[in-house]
Amino acid sequence: MVWSGLSGARAEGAVPPKVSAASAVLMDGASGRVLYEKDAHAPRLIASTTKLMTALTALESGHDLDEVVTIQRAWTGIEGSSIYLRPGEEISLEALLYGLLLRSGNDAALAIAGHCGGTVEEFVARMNAKAQELGMADTSFVNPNGLDAEGHRSTAYDMALLARACLEDEALAKIVSTRSVTLGTRTFTNHNKLLWRYEGCIGLKTGYTQHAGRTLVSAARRDGMTLICVTLDAPSDWADHAALFDWGFSGYEARALAREGERAGQLPVSGGLLPVCPVAAGEDLTAALAPGERVDTVWELTETALTAPVEAGAQVGEIVYRIGTKELARVSLVTGGEVPLDLAEPSGWLGGIWERIAGL
Which of the residues 81, 104, 154, 218 is marked catalytic? Predict the structure, then answer.
């Protein structure tokens, strides 16, 4: 059974800017809605933006940030950007993560992977498992630092999904938004110039190799709305991101579509003290919408009617939000209260027992 509701009327936005990137995407950080895309699902080299997944995998591995890591010789002397780790050196996992994401240390990536994964190969396997969990269907990691390798690929869309997950991790969000930090004898300055140049920028990661070109994953927050921008192989990446952010912030606004516990309607109940049970959104939902843009809601129910007793907070389906025929997002639909069993109701289980006793 499907239930639906409507709101507003659609408004067309301004024409998006032209960008230098071979692939690009602008995504609403709250809902995951894609506001702009250019060849966003084409697998490409991603260079050091890989390190976002390295950091996320490490932070979810259960290791403490203040753990001391003893540097192995195999993790040192790596080509490209480096924090110049020395064999036998002792350094905190936190410092390695800052060196990874601000200085883009390729040696830091190997040290983190080896320490948190047991082996670099096992850690990379965890990176790929996390990618699948996040829905990064066109992504494959071969190493933790993003150096060019056969089969090491992702897409602009997949990297935006990764950025959303990174921003939801409090520790990771703090690191990628840091302009500069001194830890021990090292000072790390963020390569992401947008942190200085674009108002509201909150991260995330730069990248470059000769074959990948310039890659950039960034996010900006204004007026309660977070936008995520990804460009791959973009000669003018700073300008691309600024232009796409300007376009997004000028044409869209954050609108609350659901609040946790907010009543959405009711469902019939059989065998209860009450004939109906209120149902509500199970979580908050905010989305970037153009002024006056129309959103449709559809209920996808696991059951069209409930049977007492009904517990509060039980999931009975999902509320699906759509713009036209395209799904925007969904939240759980839960019962908004309890409905006790009516013990006097013949259709209830106790009524059935009395009927059998009376027939003896």
Answer: 104
Answer yes or no: are the C-beta atoms of 347 and 270 closer than 8 Å.
yes
Residue 336 neighbours by CB under 8 Å, 6+ apart: 261, 263, 277, 278, 279, 280, 312
Asked, colleague to colleague, whether 23-251 and 253-360 share their fold, the answer is no
99's CB contacts (< 8 A; 6+ apart) are 83, 105, 108, 186, 188
Pick the residue with more confidence: 305 or 321? 321
Over residues 46-88, the pLDDT tens digits come to 999 999 999 999 999 999 999 999 999 999 999 999 999 999 9
**CA atoms of 245 and 223, how far apart (whole Å):** 13
- Determine how many CB atoms are found less than 10 A away from the CB of residue 112: 30
Q: In the chain, what are the domain boundaries?
A: 23-251, 253-360
Rounding to the nearest 10 degrees, give the CA dihedral for residues 261, 264, 266, 272: 0
Please report which confidence band the pLDDT of residue 5 belongs to, taking 50, 70 and 90 as the band edges. very low
Q: Give dist(CA 244, CA 229) in Å, integer.
A: 8
- Per-residue confidence at 291, pLDDT binned at 50, 70, 90? very high
Class of domain 23-251: alpha beta
Q: Is 48 a catalytic residue?
A: yes
Options 23, 31, 38, 51, the catalytic residue:
51
- 345 pLDDT band (50/70/90 cuts)? low
> One of 23, 48, 154, 218 is an active-site residue; which one?
48
* First CA to last CA distance, the chain: 41
Q: Active-site residue 81, yes or no? A: no
Q: Is the pLDDT of residue 141 over 70?
A: yes
Banded pLDDT at 343 (limits 50, 70, 90): confident
Whether 23 is catalytic is: no
Q: What is the mean pLDDT of residues 190-210?
A: 98
Query: The domain 253-360 belongs to what CATH superfamily?
Result: D-Ala-D-Ala carboxypeptidase, C-terminal domain (2.60.410.10)
Three-class secondary structure of residue 46 per DSSP: coil
